[in-house]
């Protein structure tokens, strides 16, 4: 006897998990902008206020509004109406708006084709956590033809620190929108018929009273070009060159094809500082893969190791990459099309790296660096001598002095003996060390966190040698969010890093301070 069974889905748990996947409260703004864009809006206004029960967020746009099917898609999971592959719709899974469930109340008032719908959902987050599926009530009335648009009010949003007065500012929102949402879209580089949308953000005075309403467009725009070096000690820092939009076609061995739309720039630090970065400066630049013209993940490995990725800022959009529910990661990295995309980008960027202008830029950097170094050496010897006389015990101030500390610990008889056989501070893996007769590729830093702050790879490293570990919160942040697309775990007691990015790799941590 045989029985056919259909797998069941626990709807409450599924809603709860999807909503919980959205960790950054600013994703409320990101999802709101995407929905307004998909509704054809040319203007969207977002107001955020801090209230005792949680944040109040109001989103209002002049789009085409929602009918019953659209409203169901808004509240349902995996029931998006945006399925037309020929459209430029951003949302298509019905996941994004589930972040709104993390609230006390969701109220939607929308008008389309002479019909107004008012939908109210009460206590969605409390009900989900009590394993009850929240419901919403819909009321219908007629309105004048031509009146369209949507007004959404989210009351008591469970925002944590993201919307607290101490952490949310106009500056933070502006940089977030331009870096991680369609407000920083590259689509306008590839079409003459671009759907422009103005974005207005208003924060309550209790959050930020430094300015009035913030107005943005939905375009990523590069700093002005500066082909020639400037003056002063850093003549290369404002050099900048744009590389115009290109369409690249890739094909797998199985005959699948995809189109990559890439645009970008190379520039010095001052030029890059004119971009609205979000997060650590060193973690922003390089080669970004995008979907719907919104940046998702970097693929800096497609740049030759001879070229530091920090000088590059390219966005490569491809609609054939697949994203996680919260749009933070790429899901189909094991697919043939993803590998073909990376190979094509590597080929394209090798040509960029051969540009005579780029080589001249690097030469200007080297010359300026040598000039600054020569000036610095004139005054550094006396300062260094004074530091040696003043200090009570050996404490390194840079990576090279960590090497000296390691050699000093060897002379003091500390085991195991670790000998630096080769040290080149200008390369990614800057040292080869010998321990128990074997050579190990090593990265030497003043602090363990410096390795990750410099965005160096882990795959080719056997040991990270440091004086101290640095800020433990930075290491915890890496464990939560991963590193270079892989999972990472630190066991400082055992002196070990476990890194998994396709394969598992263990890295030994040597704390020189603990050898004294």
Rg, Cα atoms, Å: 27 Å
Strand order of the largest sheet: 5-4-3-6-2-1-7-8
Choose one word for the global shape: globular
Could you name the ranges where pLDDT drops below 50 across 5 or more consecutive residues? 82-87
Q: Helicity, in percent? A: 25-40%
Class of secondary structure makeup:
alpha+beta
Summarize the structure.
26% of the residues lie in helices and 28% in strands. It has helices spanning 11-21, 27-38, 68-75, 124-129, 170-180, 269-272, 336-353, 356-390, 399-411, 448-453, 472-481, and strands spanning 43-51, 54-61, 105-112, 115-122, 136-142, 149-157, 198-203, 214-216, 240-251, 257-267, 286-291, 294-298, 312-317, 419-423, 431-435, 438-447, 463-468, 487-491, 496-500, 504-511. The strands form three sheets. Strands 5-4-3-6-2-1-7-8 form an eight-stranded mixed β-sheet, covered by helices on one side. A seven-stranded mixed β-sheet has the order 14-15-16-17-20-19-18.
Tell me what the structure shows.
With 516 residues, this protein is α+β, with helices and mostly antiparallel strands. 26% of the residues lie in helices and 28% in strands. It contains eleven helices and 20 strands. Strand 3 (105-112) and strand 4 (115-122) form a beta hairpin. It is globular and about 85 Å long. Residues 82-87 have low confidence and may be disordered.
